[in-house]
Design brief:
Layout lengths: L4 H12 L6 E2 L15 E6 L4 E5 L5 E2 L4 H13 L35 H14 L3 H13 L5 E2 L1 H10 L1 H12 L7 H12 L1 E3 L1 H7 L1 H4 L14 H14 L5 H7 L4 E3 L4 E6 L3 E6 L2 E2 L6 H14 L5
Antiparallel strand pairs: 1-10, 2-3, 2-9, 4-6, 5-6, 7-8, 8-9
This protein binds 6-diazenyl-5-OXO-L-norleucine (DON).
6-diazenyl-5-OXO-L-norleucine binds next to loops.
Length: 305
């Protein structure tokens, strides 16, 4: 299909006024200030056709969606050895759970739960001289967009209240699976979670996961075809924590959510679609985001199944 505009307009109108019993995340106080009525959608196809509606040009906190980007850079730098530090199994537990780590001897189940993303940040710290700066440069290169930044207010807001992440990082370090200073790892983690993008920008930055032939303007490949396949596979099985099965069941695309209310989903060889609606369901995933995507893949027959 080459024109999605009418379709997203129709579904947007259907979903916009549906009663949403979800709640805006407020455990990071700064996120609680966002207006709950925001609702944006954007699609970018691998041929660079672009379709948007609603608040698709408003920056928001991408939170855990950034875990795809840190995983990508760590995979690039570390290769297959990465999987010695973090597993690729769905956890079936909430994103901030400590439960399985003790039995798993400090090896997180996957790179998308907080424990796994913290280990990935530690891997990046071991490779990069100035992690915050170099990670931002990486994001800007793969999206060809200099306008991507951390939100320092959100990063420090999370630093003040991030007790669980502090516990996770220390606990993993006790098993020897964090190599760097805990405060440095967490400072980097809180920053990557504070990245801000619009739906349009998000749908552009992840084109490398949809397009096998993607290279940056500088002529660099982001991931090999096989690596991109694996990242998509982890998104499909682990992108929504203990709701990953539900997302695959209802939407049928590899995807990833964040507590800022953003969801990104990939249709390999076709497009990247992003939705932003800040009210979250009980599992921490955007209620309207999931609903929109379910209707979208049903209407366009564009799930991968
Ligand atoms: O560490 C946290 O709790 C947040 N910075 C990120 C959590 C998140 O987005 C999980 N998403 N559903």
């Amino acid at each position: 299909m080459d024109n999605y505009q009418k379709i997203i307009e129709g579904i947007y109108a259907d979903v916009k006024n549906i009663e949403d019993s979800g709640k805006v995340a407020s455990y990071i106080p700064e996120l609680g200030n966002i207006s709950p009525g925001n609702f944006g959608i954007h699609i970018t196809t691998i041929d660079k056709n672009s379709f948007g509606i609603g608040n698709s040009d408003t920056k928001f906190s991408i939170q855990s969606v950034s875990k795809i980007l840190t995983l990508t850079l760590a995979y690039k730098l570390e290769g297959e050895k990465l999987w010695e530090r973090v597993d690729v199994e769905p956890s079936g537990n909430p994103f901030n759970s400590l439960l399985q780590l003790e039995a798993d001897l400090g090896k997180p189940r996957n790179p998308f739960i907080n424990a796994g993303a913290i280990v990935i940040c530690d891997v990046l710290l071991s490779h990069l001289k100035n992690p915050k700066k170099e990670f931002l440069e990486f994001c800007r290169e793969i999206s060809d967009n200099k306008n991507i930044n951390y939100n320092e207010k959100v990063a420090s807001s999370e630093k003040i209240t991030g007790f669980r992440n502090v516990a996770l990082c220390n606990f993993i370090k006790s098993f020897g699976n964090i190599k760097n200073n805990v405060d440095d790892v967490l400072d980097f983690y809180f920053h990557i979670c504070s990245l801000e993008m619009t739906c349009k920008e998000l749908s552009e930055i992840f084109l490398y996961l949809a397009d096998d032939h993607f290279i940056t303007k500088k002529g660099n490949r982001v991931l090999t075809e096989s690596q991109a396949k694996r990242v998509n596979a982890i998104m499909l099985t682990c992108g929504f924590y203990d709701e990953s099965g539900e997302f695959a069941f209802r939407v049928g695309l590899p995807g990833k959510s964040g507590v800022g209310g953003g969801i990104v989903a990939i249709h390999p060889d076709e497009f990247c679609i992003t939705v932003w609606s800040p009210k979250l369901n009980i599992k921490g995933n955007s209620y309207k985001g999931m609903l929109f995507l379910e209707k979208f893949t049903s209407k366009t027959a564009s799930s991968i199944f």
